[in-house]
Amino acid sequence: MKSTEVVALGYHYPGPNAAAELAGAIEGEQNAEVKRHMQRFLAAVGSLPLGEWEELHTATLDLSAPFAPYIGHVIWGDAYRRGEFMSDLVRAMADANVELGGELPDHIEPVLRYLAATPTPLPDLIEVLPGALATMNQTLKAAAPDNPYCHLLAATMSCAANRPVTIGARR
Q1: How confident is the model over 9-46, as pLDDT tens digits?
Q2: Model-level pTM?
Q3: Any alpha helices (H) in the chain, and if so which ranges?
Q4: Please, is 32 exposed, middle or buried when counting C-beta atoms within 10 Å of its C-beta (0-12, 13-18, 19+)?
Q5: How many C-beta atoms surround the C-beta of residue 30 within 10 A?
Q6: Rounded to an integer, what distance in angstroms lies between the CA atom of residue 107 and that of residue 47?
């Protein structure tokens, strides 16, 4: 399993077997930095009763979220450019056989699964991803510095740091 797939599991809504599935994925993780952050995330959320983990997930990523887990929204807000970016992502994700799983295409979970599925991701995504993740991380740390999802964002940033940067992406 690729690092981006392991990290994407952390953004998925937790279910009864989520901690065990995540633990198994983390065990096989080859990137030491990603593994360390994911182990910290799992230690924090895996010790919670499922209902509390579900509440934390929802409070962090869904309801009045302390940060928006949408790459395009972080970069462009609700401007037209975000819509164009999402349209490009939908086509690219379909070509890579990545299901959105009920999320918008610029949501961090399907974006990570898309990165795992293709060796040549959209240049626009590669260009904006590090900045979007840094903004998400700063926002979450300012709003809730003890939130376990800070560890998940750190793992996500480690994955993005290991991606090649594509020059000349369209704006």
Answers
A1: 999 999 999 999 999 999 999 999 999 999 999 999 99
A2: 0.90
A3: 3-11, 18-27, 32-46, 50-61, 71-76, 80-95, 108-117, 123-143, 149-161
A4: exposed
A5: 10
A6: 26
